[in-house]
Amino acid sequence: MTRPVIVAANWKMNGCLSLVDEMTASLAKVELSENTRVIICPSFPYLASFASKQIDCNLNANIALGSQNVSEHEKGAYTGEVSTEMLNEVGVKYVIVGHSERRSLYKETSSLVAHKVAKVLNAGMTPIFCIGESEQERETGQTNTVLASQIQPVIDEIGIENFSKIVVAYEPVWAIGTGKTASPELAQETHQFIRQFIADVDLEVAKKVSILYGGSVNAANCKELFAQQDIDGGLIGGASLKVDEFSHICSAV
Ligand code: PEP
């Protein structure tokens, strides 16, 4: 089963209009292999600018726009929130859901995350569903239990038959923004557990679903990480703000 290699950029609360310009100009020159998909997730105010630059720069159809979050509500009195319909309207194709920063800083529970995953799918976009353990959870041997407790509510909410329509991003919390990347062996071992957990419910779905690694991925370590059997690309924070480095990652895979 050949799964695409997905390189997704999470700009977090960083970037500006000129970064949108520079990134789209650079991506327009990047040679992407046929099997590579690139997703750029800027902050809400830059989504529409990115979408219009995609057209101006005639970006490859394999480069898509993503959002970093979405509301679980349809519409109404939810000041500061953004709906799936709004994201759809500006050309968003992917939505990051359940990033560890949303889980820890904004107290998003696994059941809320599962609800958002379903909302995004029902709106015709692809959720990038994030999971990962803390340093303490890894050190005390709880990694697999934690990951299972994050995945199961999504399977229950959307049904296993829909699980291959989402992208999973495994991001050990201790590796996010710390420069402490999981070794390729450790990342592979955990990805294998995630795929096996899904395979125990449905083998065909497990073969199809894309599982990305996130946590201090950069131009120097991406190749070895993405070469692992169960790693289908990466969700990239810090290095995705550096135009040359990110373009290099996209063309290197
Ligand atoms: C992230 O924010 O999803 C992430 C992986 O960040 P970084 O690459 O900076 O560790």
TrEMBL record:
Source species, domain of life: Bacteria
Task of the protein: Involved in the gluconeogenesis. Catalyzes stereospecifically the conversion of dihydroxyacetone phosphate (DHAP) to D-glyceraldehyde-3-phosphate (G3P).
One of its GO biological process terms is: glyceraldehyde-3-phosphate biosynthetic process
UniProt subcellular location = Cytoplasm
This protein's GO CC annotations: cytosol
Family, similarity comment: Belongs to the triosephosphate isomerase family.
Q: Which organism is it from?
A: Thalassotalea marina
Q: Which reaction does it catalyse?
A: D-glyceraldehyde 3-phosphate = dihydroxyacetone phosphate
Gene3D superfamilies in alphabetical order: Aldolase class I
Single GO MF annotation: triose-phosphate isomerase activity
EC assignment: the record states 5.3.1.1
Q: Which gene encodes it?
A: tpiA
Which InterPro entries does this one have? Aldolase_TIM (IPR013785), TIM_sf (IPR035990), TrioseP_Isoase_bac/euk (IPR022896), Triosephosphate_isomerase (IPR000652), Triosephosphate_isomerase_AS (IPR020861)
Assigned keywords, A-Z: Cytoplasm, Gluconeogenesis, Glycolysis, Isomerase
State which pathway it belongs to.
Carbohydrate metabolism; erythritol degradation; Carbohydrate degradation; glycolysis; D-glyceraldehyde 3-phosphate from glycerone phosphate: step 1/1; Carbohydrate biosynthesis; gluconeogenesis
Assembly mode: Homodimer.
Instruction: Kindly identify the residues recorded as the active site.
Output: 99 (electrophile), 171 (proton acceptor)
Kindly report, in one word, the top-level EC class recorded for this enzyme.
Answer: isomerase
**What protein name applies here?**
Triosephosphate isomerase
- Chain sites annotated for binding substrate: 10-12, 177, 216, 237-238
